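TASK: fixed-backbone design
INPUT:
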């Protein structure tokens, strides 16, 4: 019996060892690896789309959606206003939101005296409406002065050195939005004061000519066109 025991032990020692089990990757590490791989793939797709111009198209579609929502909002404001005031049906107004009421009060205190940020401005050709959409109330109806700056150039066509300063004073007194950006001597001498619409689309060019006692003409030959100005006034010696 002892001999048989020892053989059995020997046989057991010669049995092949069980294969070692592979170490399993912890689940949190697997999740992190999957997330990183997905992010890498997404970044690659984004880069390809961006190079092809599709990302810009997506952004544009978002901007157009925002604009259509604003238009719908403006239409809602017009509908509310139309319930309490007769509005022109054949004219589409220009609409804006008051964002700096205090600045507007300084520019035109009579019209904007009771304005506040968030109020709506509805512009028609013959009138402007200040409307509080929160309480559906008309604040003011009237005409808003043109507050967009008009850049003037003044050429002195006389021998009087003070002629340019005098003309600038006349312009700023007559037009609250006049800004003189260029002051030079004219290439030649002039008897009459001339007014040139440099952009060709100024509806007030006749009023400007009347205010300065001048005549509306094309740019005289020999005179250079001033850069950045909308209206050129060439001062003449006649008063």
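OUTPUT:
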């Amino acid at each position: 019996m002892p001999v048989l025991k020892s053989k059995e032990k020997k046989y057991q020692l010669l049995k092949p060892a069980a294969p070692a089990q592979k170490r399993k990757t912890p689940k949190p590490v697997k999740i992190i690896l999957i997330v990183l791989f997905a992010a890498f793939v997404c970044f690659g797709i984004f880069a390809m789309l961006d190079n092809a111009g599709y990302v810009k198209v997506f952004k544009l579609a978002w901007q157009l959606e925002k604009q259509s929502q604003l238009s719908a909002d403006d239409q809602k404001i017009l509908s509310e206003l139309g319930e309490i005031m007769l509005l022109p049906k054949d004219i589409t107004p220009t609409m804006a939101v008051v964002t700096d009421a205090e600045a507007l009060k300084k520019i035109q205190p009579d019209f904007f005296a009771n304005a506040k940020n968030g109020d709506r401005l509805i512009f028609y050709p013959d009138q402007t409406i200040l409307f509080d959409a929160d309480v559906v109330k008309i604040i003011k109806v009237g005409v808003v002065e043109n507050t967009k700056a008009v850049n003037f150039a003044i050429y002195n066509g006389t021998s009087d050195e003070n002629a340019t300063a005098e003309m600038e004073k006349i312009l700023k007194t007559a037009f609250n939005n006049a800004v003189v950006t260029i002051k030079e001597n004219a290439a030649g001498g002039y008897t009459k004061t001339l007014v040139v619409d440099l952009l060709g689309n100024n509806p007030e060019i006749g009023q400007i000519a009347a205010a300065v006692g001048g005549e509306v003409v094309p740019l005289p030959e020999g005179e250079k066109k001033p850069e950045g100005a909308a209206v050129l006034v060439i001062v003449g010696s006649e008063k």
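COMMENT: The chain is about 40% helix and 20% strand.
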